[in-house]
Amino acid sequence: MLDYLVKPVEPPRLAETVARLRERLAVAPPAPDLQALLQQLAAQLQPPVALPAPVRWIRAQAGQGLRTIAVDDIDYLRADAKYTRVAWHEDGGRAAEALIGTALKNLVAQLDPLQFAQVHCSTVVNLRAILRNRGEVLPVSRSYLHLFRQM
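Below the sequence we write its predicted structure tokens.
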């Protein structure tokens, strides 16, 4: 065995593994299949393709009307069947909620990962809103707990 990587794989740790493989291969010539694998790993170390800009506004059904909510005002998002429940604070400080027709798993990819963190398979929180006054207690699963131990 050459090395062992633990999930989630971090790019610097993967780069160390590739460097070890290259050192080892300098001593012994690689098999043809191993050479192809190393080329695939090297390609994965290239900088990622630029992602589209995160969404800044979400349109939601609130009561009888349609509402445009600034993403910065959102406290959390929660899966609700095939919909997503959006919770935010309005200008006067009043807590509000609305449903949108987009599934949470589809919405997560459109949010800024530096501002929003998934804490449960059904819940995403705005990291800037964690200390806002809300009465809800949101679930945090073990698989996402590492995000908050760093805080």
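Residues 50 and 112 are 13 Å apart (CA to CA).
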